[in-house]
Specification:
By secondary structure, the protein is mainly alpha-helical. The chain is built from seven helices and three strands. Helix 3 runs antiparallel to helix 6.
Length: about 160
C-alpha cells in the first residue's frame, strides 16, 4: 500500500505528455512502466480469491499507459483491495503461473502463498520505480530520494547513517 501511495503522489505531478513520451531511446515511457506494474497488482487481486494467479494473463490496459490520472485511479482501487487482506491470510496457498523464458510454451503452475506474492509485488514495484526514477531524471523531475529504493536498502542506509554519527 505504501508503494502504491508513493506512486499516486508522483502521478499527481506528471503531465500526460511526460507520462506517455519515451525519454530514452529503446526504453518504454513512464506510463508503460506504471501500466505494467499495475497490471501485476490487478492480476494478483483478481486471482487471489480463486487461489490461482496467472501473471501472463494480464489485462494490459492502454489507458493506464497514457493517462496518469487513470493510473492513479487504478492504484487507489488496488489499495482498497489490498487493505482487505488480513495478516493471517499471508500463508494461504496459491498456484502461480508466469512464463520464465525457459522455452516451454505450456503453463508452468507453481505453489506459492499470498504473502510470498505480496513480497513479489513489492520487489517488482521497486524495480519499476527505479526505472521510472531514471526516466524522470531525464526530463528534470525528481521522484524523491526514497522512490525506487527497496525497504531493506532504506533500512541499511538508516543504520549506516546512525553508525556514522
Amino acid at each position: 500500500v505504501r508503494f502504491l501511495e508513493q506512486g499516486i503522489d508522483l502521478l499527481g505531478r506528471l503531465t500526460p505528455e511526460i507520462y506517455s513520451t519515451p525519454t530514452r531511446p529503446g526504453w518504454a515511457p513512464v506510463g508503460t512502466q506504471f501500466r505494467h506494474m499495475l497490471d501485476h497488482y490487478r492480476t494478483f487481486v483478481e486471482g487471489r480469491e480463486a487461489g490461482r494467479i496467472d501473471y501472463d494473463a494480464r489485462l494490459r490496459d492502454g489507458r493506464t499507459e497514457t493517462d496518469p490520472a487513470e493510473a492513479a485511479a487504478q492504484a487507489r482501487t488496488m489499495i482498497s483491495e489490498l487493505e482487505r487482506i488480513h495478516v493471517e491470510d499471508g500463508s494461504r496457498a496459491l498456484a502461480v503461473q508466469m512464463d520464465t523464458g525457459g522455452g516451454q510454451r505450456v503453463p508452468d503452475w507453481r505453489p506459492s502463498s499470498l504473502g510470498r506474492e505480496l513480497q513479489f509485488l513489492v520487489s517488482h514495484t521497486v524495480h519499476h520505480y527505479a526505472l521510472i526514477k531514471l526516466l524522470l531524471e531525464d526530463v528534470g523531475i525528481d521522484a524523491g530520494a526514497d522512490f525506487g529504493v527497496a525497504p531493506s536498502s532504506l533500512a541499511y542506509q538508516a543504520r549506516s547513517a546512525l553508525a556514522s554519527h
